[in-house]
Amino acid sequence: MDLSAEITSGKEKYIRLQADFDNFWKRSEKERLTARSDAQGEVIESLFPMIDSFGRAKQQVKPETEKEKKIDTSYQGIYKQFVEIMRCLQVAVVPTVGKPFDPSLHEAIAREKSLEFKEGVIIQEFRRGFLLRDRLIRPAMVKVSSGPGSKKATAASDHKSSGQPTTAGDDE
């Protein structure tokens, strides 16, 4: 009887030890993936100033001569390669203009009356936001509609914002 109890106790200890080891293995794997994702996010974040510069350059460059058009075509090819690499890394642009404001994805830096957009809808993007898989790595800076105002006020604000930055999917 004593031997049988000892065998049962040994089996229970073995089963608990095996479960502890399985839990340790799963926890270690999860920590490894989290560390990798964090490192990847940091590298991608360091590229954001370059992405912003590409966007500003695209808005400002208006090629006129044949040579300028060739340079612009080369520049666009490099940018498209860069965008494709970001897509392969599962980096996505946060949707903005025309979408409802979401404080978990967007950073509102201005509010403005608008006849075109309902209250709480994004009317302009100032800086792109990005997601790495499902994790936000940079919120989008946006202007949000405060609802309809007088036609006179809205016409004046529409005139001011005619140089609107490109929206999330315009050049991708």
Automatic annotation (TrEMBL):
Q: Which PROSITE patterns match?
A: GRPE (PS01071)
Cellular compartment(s): Cytoplasm; Mitochondrion matrix
Q: Which domain of life is it from?
A: Eukaryota
Q: Where is the composition biased (Polar residues)?
A: 162-172
Give the Gene Ontology MF terms in alphabetical order: adenyl-nucleotide exchange factor activity; protein homodimerization activity; protein-folding chaperone binding; unfolded protein binding
Region Disordered: what ranges?
143-172
Q: Name one GO biological process term.
A: protein folding
Q: Cellular component terms, GO, for this chain's entry?
A: chloroplast; mitochondrial matrix
Alphabetically sorted, this entry's keywords are: Chaperone, Cytoplasm, Mitochondrion, Stress response
Statement: the UniProt record of this protein carries the keyword Chaperone: yes
Q: How does it assemble?
A: Homodimer.
Q: Which family does it belong to?
A: Belongs to the GrpE family.
User: What is this protein's function per UniProt?
Assistant: Essential component of the PAM complex, a complex required for the translocation of transit peptide-containing proteins from the inner membrane into the mitochondrial matrix in an ATP-dependent manner.
The protein, known as: GrpE protein homolog
